[in-house]
Amino acid sequence: MEENRAKLIGAARRAFAASGFAGASMDELTAEVGLTRGALYHGFGDKKGLLAAVVAQVDGEMAARAQRAGAAAANEWEGLLAEGAAYIEMALDPEVRRIVLLDGPAFLGDPATWPSQNACLSITMEAVARLIAEGVMQPVDVEAASRLLSGAAFNAALWVAASENPQVTLPKAVAAFRLMAQGLLAKRD
């Protein structure tokens, strides 16, 4: 069962990245891995369920990449900013662009309801809570600040992904994200 699930997710990931959700053929996808449509429906309910599984996988990988970028930063504040910037920069990756940023919201709805996005939010909340406790950030509601930071990074990535010239849009998005986030820093005398 798990092997079939992994095969279907892998095939769907390739198909969705190449043709988009709407253009991907479930018959071709299942035939590629030697399974039937019944296996797809049994494991995922429908094509949207399969997309949700693929989005969760890609989004999880994005979160791990962003965390690695944050871990390489000089301190936790710079790490938080590096994670956001890395997430925005992933909009240039064709697979991320198509699956998570274009098709995900179009077919799965509000990303704030995705389990993978809520996992990212939890990690951000932990970092924000520590930064507030250390006096690096102003004493602000942890959830509010975390949702705004996460939402800003996601929406900046959406902007980059939908842009006619993503290479030009990207530095603008990252610069604005960093500037906005700096408003949360504690005032230093």
Explain what the structure shows.
The mean pLDDT is 94. Helix content is 78%, strand content 0%. The chain has helices at residues 2-23, 26-32, 37-44, 47-71, 76-89, 94-108, 115-133, 142-162, 166-182. The protein has nine helices and no strands. The protein has a domain at 55-183: Tetracycline Repressor, domain 2 (Orthogonal Bundle), CATH 1.10.357. With 189 residues, the chain is mainly alpha-helical.
In a nutshell, what does this entry contain?
Helices cover 78% and strands 0% of the residues.
Keywords:
about 190 residues, mainly alpha, Tetracycline Repressor, domain 2, elongated
CATH architecture level-2 label of the domain at 55-183: Orthogonal Bundle
Poorly predicted parts: none
Content-based structural category: mainly alpha
What's the CATH superfamily of the domain at 55-183, by name? Tetracycline Repressor, domain 2
- Which value, in Å, is the CA radius of gyration? 18 Å
Q: Determine the number of helices (DSSP H or I, runs of at least 4 residues).
A: 9
Helix content: over 70%
Mean pLDDT across the residues is 94
The number of E-state strands comes to: 0
